[in-house]
Design goal:
This protein has about 280 residues and is of the alpha/beta class. The chain has one domain: Rossmann fold (3-Layer(aba) Sandwich). About 40% of the residues lie in helices and about 10% in strands. The chain contains eight helices and six strands. A six-stranded mixed beta sheet has the order 5-4-3-1-2-6, with helices on both faces. Strand 4, helix 6 and strand 5 form a beta-alpha-beta unit. Helix 2 crosses helix 7, helix 3 packs parallel to helix 5 and helix 5 packs parallel to helix 6. The longest helix is centred in the C-terminal third of the chain and has 25 residues. It is globular.
Length: about 280
């Protein structure tokens, strides 16, 4: 566990104190669902990096994103955690275990034990480690049946954060991402608006002044007829669910042959990231 003199807990970070940031995780942190103009994904971590950079008076902010879609916890620990320790940033965001939890037969208690070992390793080397809970999946087809497992893992993550003094990006309590407009058509990844709201919430957790409330209500929209909902569900199953199940059965991952998009701590360039908006 990191020494109390260097650890940073939720809300205790002075604006501008973070000069470097490395993001660890899977598709959520890579930014899948939030495509940029050059074809690369942006995502909440990139948007958070912009917020952190904007609050850095010295204009020497550096950012790395080691996340790769489809990664399970053990591979994140094997590949990304050592690299993050080598980079030695001021802040690491660590979101892992979600892909493990949705696997049939997975044990959230066992996954949490491995997650805690990684948090202990990171907090011994990095001043601030922000951990991320799972989403409340009560309104998500298929995943809503795993809500109990996800809730159990989320409770573990919060307890681990308490033990190691980590700020917590609590996605379970972020009400705005319960709206379907926060999600990509695949219903597994956030939309650009969803990623933006998560970035704003992460900024709040780190004590930053953010340009908008991440939980502000969405504009009202008319209720969709039942036949349209059923039609969309059938189309979603055909386009996304069946291929996803096929990859699981074949032992394939969407991240096979994918490399981290920002493997080094580099100065942040406005051309490669996007600022969070309302």
């Amino acid at each position: 566990m990191a020494d109390d003199s260097t650890s940073i807990t939720e809300g205790s970070i002075s604006e501008g104190a973070i000069g470097s940031y490395a993001a660890l995780g899977d598709s959520f942190t890579e930014g899948v669902g939030d495509p940029g103009p050059d074809g690369a994904f942006i995502g909440w971590a990139d948007r958070l990096a912009v917020l952190l950079s904007d609050h850095r008076a010295e204009h020497d902010f550096r950012y790395a994103n080691l996340a790769v879609r489809g990664r399970l916890l053990d591979r994140i620990v094997e590949e990304q955690v050592p690299r993050a320790k080598e980079l030695a940033p001021d802040l690491v965001s660590f979101c892992a275990g979600g892909n493990d939890i949705i696997r049939p037969g997975s044990d959230p208690d066992a996954v949490a034990e491995r997650f805690e070992a990684a948090v202990a390793d990171l907090t011994a080397a990095v001043p601030a480690v922000m951990v991320t809970t799972g989403f409340d999946t009560r309104g998500v087809p298929v995943l809503r049946h795993l809500r109990g497992k996800i809730a159990t893992y989320t409770a573990h993550v919060r307890a681990i954060a308490d033990r190691y003094g980590c700020p917590v990006l609590d996605l379970w309590s972020l009400r705005s991402v319960q709206d379907r407009r926060a999600w990509d058509p695949d219903r597994l990844h956030l939309s650009p608006d969803g990623h933006t709201r998560v970035a704003l919430r992460a900024g709040q957790v780190l004590g930053l002044t953010v340009p908008a409330d991440p939980d502000q209500p969405w504009p009202p929209q008319p209720e969709r007829p039942a036949f349209a909902v059923r039609r969309d569900n059938v189309q979603w199953a055909r386009e996304y669910l069946v291929p996803w199940i096929g990859r699981r059965l074949r032992g394939e991952s969407s991240g096979d042959h994918v490399e981290p998009k920002r493997p080094d701590l580099l100065p942040l360039e406005s051309s490669s990231t996007a600022a969070p908006g309302a």
